[in-house]
Amino acid sequence: MFLASLRASSSRLPSPRLFSTSSRVMEKARLGPSTETPTPEALLIKIGRNADKKLTPFAESWEKLNEVWLRTQKLQDLGLGIKERRYILWAFSKYSQGNNPSTFIRPPKPPKKVRGWGPKIQNGVRVRE
């Protein structure tokens, strides 16, 4: 009796949960030229955060840049940090979806100016002793 009520209630969910693990859905789109970035160097310059200097061996052609995008182990072999790799791969995924770099690029977070102990220090001034 109790199980029947659970099944009936679950059938009234607003939308079914869909999971797809087909290789076509999980396949990455290849990087290629666009009007805003005709060359791989231009894309790396637009991405910023010194990506053009960090990925100079792969900036010669779109095929070499696609090697980095499709086999991400090469980024680790170059000695890039985790945040750098994540940002570059995030930017490549946005670009491969057809977005222009000028729409999704964001500057890095500035360093914190005030280090403190919460409400004891506000705007660099000690409030409580």
UniProtKB/TrEMBL annotation:
Manganese is among the record's keywords: no
Signal peptide feature range: none
Ranges for domain Small ribosomal subunit protein mS41 SAM: 40-98
Major place of residence: mitochondrion
Gene Ontology CC: one annotated term: mitochondrion
Superkingdom of this protein's organism: Eukaryota
InterPro entries: Ribosomal_mS41, SAM_Ribosomal_mS41
Subcellular localization(s) per the UniProt record: Mitochondrion
Keyword Mitochondrion attached: yes
Pfam name, any one: SAM_Ribosomal_mS41
Keywords assigned by UniProt, alphabetized: Mitochondrion
PANTHER family: PROTEIN FYV4, MITOCHONDRIAL, SMALL RIBOSOMAL SUBUNIT PROTEIN MS41
Similarity comment: family membership: Belongs to the mitochondrion-specific ribosomal protein mS41 family.
Name this protein carries in UniProt: Small ribosomal subunit protein mS41
Source organism of the structure: Kwoniella shandongensis
Phylogenetic classification of the source organism: Eukaryota, Fungi, Dikarya, Basidiomycota, Agaricomycotina
